[in-house]
Amino acid sequence: MNSEDLEQQVLLLAARDWQVRRAAGEALLAAGSDGLSAVVQGLGHPEPPVRRGCLDFLDHHADDLCIDDLRRVALDDPVPQVRRFAVHALGCVRCKTRPLDIDLIEFLAMIAGRRNENVKVRKEAVYALSLQPQNSRAIPVLKLILEQESDQELLKTAHRVLRLHDPEYRRLTDERARRASLAGTKSR
């Protein structure tokens, strides 16, 4: 497949029809490293749906060479939805055949803690922290979110993820829940 054909397949990753998107993804996969390179180049396309389609592809097929490009999009893309998909493509280990070889804790914590960032992007970063191995470096930003945030979904997600990363917080919240449950039983 020549470069023009690859570029055309990248554009088709933004098609409304899922079968067209799937066929384009299969063609790009069949092109091997050239197809992956074309998708990475598509991250700079002027149309947000094309960038989002590229990120959806990379969510499943990114390799370690894509990491810097995914980080750049997660930080700098002008469209919040595109940034959110970039964070997901970096942090989601469930979608990939093999996880990226990168420690994402500090990067995801930085995105989650950006108060001027779109709340959906921040939620995606907090969710991605839940997929990372337990690490104390995630704790400060999650606690800060619990102290300062007003978005209820973000608060719930941060609470759940903090329980995964901080055994002491998990112990305290379990104890608080037990006491509340006992108090409710006694009042009946």
Supply the CATH class of the largest domain: Mainly Alpha
> What number is the mean pLDDT?
94
Note the main sheet.
Answer: none
The number of domains is: 2
Low-confidence stretches: none
Radius of gyration: 20 Å
Number of helices: 11
Helix and strand string, N-terminal first? HHHHHHHHHHH
Chain-wise SSE layout:
Elements: H1 3-12, H2 18-30, H3 33-42, H4 48-61, H5 67-76, H6 80-91, H7 105-112, H8 119-130, H9 139-148, H10 152-165, H11 167-187
Features:
single chain; 188 residues; mainly alpha; Leucine-rich Repeat Variant; 2 domains; 0% strand
Describe the protein.
The chain is mainly alpha-helical and 188 residues long. 71% of the residues lie in helices and 0% in strands. The radius of gyration is 20 Å and the shape is elongated. The model has no long low-confidence stretch (mean pLDDT 94).
Summary?
With 188 residues, the chain is mostly helical.
